[in-house]
Amino acid sequence: MNDDLTNARESLFEAPPMGEQERMVEAILFASAEPVSVKELAGRMPHGCDPAEALVHLRKRYEGRGVTIMKIGDAWAIRTASDLGFLMQKETVETRKLSRAAIETLAIIAYHQPVTRAEIEEIRGVSVSRGTVDQLLEMDWIKFGRRKMTPGRPVTFVVTQGFLDHFGLESARDLPGLKELRAAGLLESRPMPSAVLPDDREDEEDDFQGEMFEE
Amino acid sequence: MNDDLTNARESLFEAPPMGEQERMVEAILFASAEPVSVKELAGRMPHGCDPAEALVHLRKRYEGRGVTIMKIGDAWAIRTASDLGFLMQKETVETRKLSRAAIETLAIIAYHQPVTRAEIEEIRGVSVSRGTVDQLLEMDWIKFGRRKMTPGRPVTFVVTQGFLDHFGLESARDLPGLKELRAAGLLESRPMPSAVLPDDREDEEDDFQGEMFEE
Amino acid sequence: MADDFVEDQLSVGERLAAEALIVDVGTFEGPLDLLLTLSRTQKVDLRQISILALAQQYLAFVERAKQLRLELAADYLVMAAWLAFLKSRLLLPPDPTEEGPSGEELAAHLAFQLERLQAMRESAAKLMARDQLGRDFFARGLTEDVERVKRVTYTATLLDLMQGYARIRTRDEFRPYVMDRDAIMTMEQALDRMRRLIGFAGDWTDIATYLPEGWGGEPSRRRSATAANFAASLELAKEGHIEIRQGDMFAPIQIRRKKT
Fold first, then answer.
1. What is the spatial distance between Cα C131 and Cα B162, in angstroms, rounded to a whole number?
2. What is chain C's percent helix, strand, coil content, to nearest 5?
3. For residue A208, pLDDT beyond 50
4. So what's the architecture of A2-90 in CATH?
5. Can you spell out the DSSP letters for A140-206?
6. What ipTM score was computed for the predicted complex, to two decimals?
7. What's B100-214's CATH class?
8. To 5 degrees, how large is the angle CA B87–CA B89–CA B95?
9. Do residues A116 and C174 lie in contact, with contact meaning Cβ atoms separated by under 8 Å?
10. How far apart are the first and last CA of chain C?
11. Which among C33, C115, C137 has the least Cβ separation from residue A85?
């Protein structure tokens, strides 16, 4: 029933031809260093444009070129082809060296997201320092996700679009080796068989409660 | 005399094919924060490259695209196609409340039209700034009426059809009088014997009451 | 003989390794990290690792640290106690009366934890080996900022307009009250005046005729004076000086001096 309205609108504001739309998307992506979402593209282009389709064409056009059209989460960006990085010494930004703890924490968040601090600590076997999380937050590589629906409703961490952008990932599903890890069951949170691992605080509590009821 | 050496080098380090050189120039121009000269391009590209020729190809490739390869001084840069500049603007519409001075001026014009600037000032008790009148004119809520047949033949202001449309009025005569405003609780002040203007509709009723007592 | 020799060699090698580990103890990120490092000496897939052997290695490490009077953090000792417990469970035949998970289950979980940590380390390395923005591939250098064009539209409601007008037109009413006294006649004033006039009111007279000069014209003044006169009349009637009557609704109110 809305079709009539839509059709009426479409005839009223005729969208530019697809070739023009492709040019527009090209111009917008070239102008921005940050990924631009399809929604924002649509918002900036004339009424009736279909940036998603224009992107398909544009992506094909830039295949094998010196720059490529990359999908990052639900946004798009143009990046130089990674085989040409050697030409860019001048543009190379020295990134802060991350500590081993920070790199591991980042990987755990990326592969296990959404993940709580307690879960990260369980995997690494040591407590996560505040500084590590702060650093990753500050770099805009991780952010807070939803709270877990478990007692205490702990906050979770997830990776950001900035993370995907930095590592050239379309989505967190494209993390290297993710499938294999999942197949091997290494991404499951497997609880300690009901007893006492010394560093497992949660289990201790569970056991304590269990004992209370058993007695 | 240097040719021998150059030739020797060229054969030693064969320059990449022109297609590759074009990719390189494309990537460098894309990533660079400033326009890049041919000399600098040559310095950054592998030995034996001919950036000037690569630029000719690249320029052709971008003809009619959303971005163009432009020469700026003696350097080169990628820029948005001039016809797409409008995409680099994002219009945000902000709605603000009209200032008190503008509302009062507008109200006086609506209630007393046609009215001169001097009359508005007399009623308001303060001078009316040019900006206020200009703003109302620009909004198409007031316009110039006939000149008054008084010395100096001052211009008058009247409200427009746009004004009536905005406020949902058939005519300016439909504006509620003071009495109605008071009844509607729009006047906080006590109903006091006021310094009434002769054309004030409220007085008609006051007089009626007064007559009651006279009889 | 030869076997003994080999074994001696190994134990020397193991001892050296253990000492090297102890020197490094500060670089381990806790007991799990140490266990993972120790497990590498088994040179097998983590899935086939002997947890019993690993527990023994760990306990030997802790023992050695003690001999060297090296302070180990508490969690290392807690882990040692737990591994000693695990070891005994793994070695002794299962006691059917005993509650809780079997030694094998506990060992399997520890193996899982080690494998998971190892997997995360490898994944982290893979991640960091990827092409990275600003190092291997690059964003646009010469960005064009989106210019925010702000268009301001002004609006007002009819209510604003009316309130604005009312504000101007009632501005005078906000003057100090005393300033308006010229339009107000108080009952006292009226009473004062009527006391003087009442002596002449032998017959019924319309109360309106008692309005003083200058108070009968302008509505506000007339209203005030009428009300004051009426109130004064009531007061005089109460005092017994006059009589009041009104023929009908809205008919003129009349007064006259009370005959004494």
1. 60
2. 65, 10, 30
3. no
4. Orthogonal Bundle (1.10)
5. TSEEE-PPPSSTT---EEEE-HHHHHHTT-SSGGGSTTHHHHHHTTTTS-PPPSSS--TT-HHHHHH
6. 0.64
7. mainly alpha
8. 130
9. no
10. 157
11. C137
Contact B67/A at CB under 8 A: yes
> Are the beta carbons of A108 and A68 closer than 8 angstroms?
no
Confidence of residue C18 (pLDDT cuts 50, 70, 90): low
Same fold for the domain at B2-90 and the one at B100-214? yes
Q: How do the domains of chain A map onto residue ranges? A: 2-90, 100-214
Using DSSP, state whether C207 is helix, strand or coil. helix
Q: Would the CB atoms of B80 and C146 count as touching at under 8 Å?
A: no
Give dist(CA C39, CA C115) in Å, integer.
10
Q: Which residues contact A196 (CB under 8 A, 6 or more apart)?
A: A203, A204, A207, C82
Separation CA A101–CA A133 (nearest Å): 10
* DSSP E strand boundaries for chain C: 147-155, 205-206, 242-246, 253-257
- The answer to whether residue B26 neighbours chain A at the CB level (below 8 Å) is yes
Q: Which helix (DSSP H) or strand (DSSP E) does residue A70 occupy?
A: strand A67-72
In angstroms, how far is CA C167 from the centroid of its own chain?
39
pLDDT tens-digit profile of C140-188? 988 877 777 777 778 888 778 877 887 787 766 544 334 445 677 888 8
Q: Which residues of C52-72 are buried (b: 16+ CB within 10 A; e: fewer)?
A: bebbebbbebbeebeeeeeeb
Mark yes or no for CB contact A23/B66 under 8 Å. yes
Quick one: closest CA in B to C216, which residue?
A: B214
- Find where tokens 């971005």 sit: B67
Counting other chains too, the contacts that A191-194 makes at CB distance below 8 Å and 24 or more residues apart are A192/C109, A193/C101, A193/C105, A193/C106, A193/C108, A193/C109, A194/C100, A194/C101
Reduced to 3 DSSP states, what percent helix, strand and coil does chain B have, rounded to the nearest 5?
50, 15, 35
At C122, list the tokens: 């490898």
Instruction: Say if A124 is an interface residue toward chain C (CB within 8 Å).
Output: yes
Tokens 């100090």 found at: C176
Cα distance between residue B94 and residue B92, in whole Å: 6
